[in-house]
Here is the input.
Amino acid sequence: MLPTLGTVLALPVLAAGKPNVVAGAEHLDHQVRWAHVAEVADIGDLLRGDELILTTGVALPRTDDGIVAFVQGLAALPVAGLVVELGRAYAGRLPTAMVRAAAKFGLPLVELTRPVAFIEVTEAVHSLVIDEQISSLRQAQALHETFTELAVEGADTAEVVRQAARMAGAPVVLETPGHLVVEHDAAGADEAALLARWQQRSRAVRVPGRAGVDPASGWVVATVGARGEDWGRLVLVRDADDPRPHDLMLVERTATTLALQRLITRDREGLERQTHRTLLTALMEHQHPDAEIGLRARALGVTLDGRRLLGAVVRWREGRSATTLATQARLRDLADAVAQAARDASAAALVGAIDDRSVGLLVALDRRDDDATVLDSLGRAIERVVRYRIPAAGAEQLLLAAGTVVAGLRDARRSVVEAQQVADAAAHLPRVSGFLRLHDVGVRGLLSLLRDDPRIETFTERELGPLLDRDDDLLSVLRTYLANGRNKSAAAAAMHLSRPAYYDRLTRLASVLDADLDDVETCLALHVALLARDTR
Here is the structure.
């Protein structure tokens, strides 16, 4: 944003003086804020720092101590450098005391071996400074206008990152707090090399505060988030020896645009999700005629009329209710994520919360759509979007369930209810990726469908009643025995009991139930009763 001393020394007006850097050559990257002509030693009160001091030395101290004090005072400000013209006060070379003091205090010291007009030097330096500042303002204005336009037009994440990479001329990566790459633009570089070992490389880059430059790698980093919620990190991949003056401004402005985009999207989707939820609720509770629901859905861009429909639910595995504001917020975030995933998978669907723990979907299928293929694509998209947008919750905690494809709106409720029942039954099963359907949960699914049937409750009470009010471990003994295929040795090991002790419990269990535990049909009935009890 300001010219460096090296740039200033290369100006034709100074180059004509044959400048020779006699000390502090390693500090030619000092920025020059102004040029000041000084022919007296006591000039400290006239300076503010970063000035280039021009002098012939005619009024400078003549003693070594005086010269050292003069140089030390300039270095303490600090000034950008000291340029001394030879010929008037110093013939041939600068005083040794001045050179040594400049080297000691890190002050760039330059001697001009030919005379120059200082007024021309100051004019040239000031013009360069002003030009640099104007250029900086123009670049800042261009950044502001570009990203304001992106925000106003509702550009997606990929477009914002792409624009940042184009303006930087270097790769830009948007990652999650866990350093997973969400979006990137290699700016013409090798994408494989950019993303190779990304998590390991990114974890090593840390900057103080919310934005900064890592001096070791040269990467420019900004935290992305708003309203106290940080959900990402934006990285401009720059080499350590190739810093650019506007990199930090660019990354901060990009991060702000991404945060604003997410807030706008969340507000917009909040209203959209409310409308979807209203339609799904009306469908589930038969509040409106099918034709009206179809008409309102079509106005939302989801055509349900004349389509095959598929109900599905998505929920978190843990927890049974959403009684707290935090849990309600998580359900809202999940609904937004599922809606985004449906768009990513090109699935036309109504998406919204259908109870206090589930997000419901009603997916419209074309004649050519294979429901298993659509669910597979949708399931992968949901897990990917949740992993990005709700990283703290963990996509591995998702439970996805789907019902049977139905011919139209008349039977749509049945498909969604079936999906809910599959989800209820699957809550006790090991976690698998993708959507579960009725055939995936077997007997549990059947019992879930029949769980409100009083005959199931009567059957469960008849088979297990003698055990339900006991405070011993006989119910666990039965469960372990059946889970291990009636293998008594394996069941004893599973309960960490000796075989004689476990056999004794089995004997008591058979007595309490008045049942033959070696009979296959008896054990089948007991197993079904246990599963029915688990699904209640």
Q: What stands out?
A: The longest helix spans residues 247-284. The chain has 19 helices and 15 strands. The radius of gyration is 37 Å.
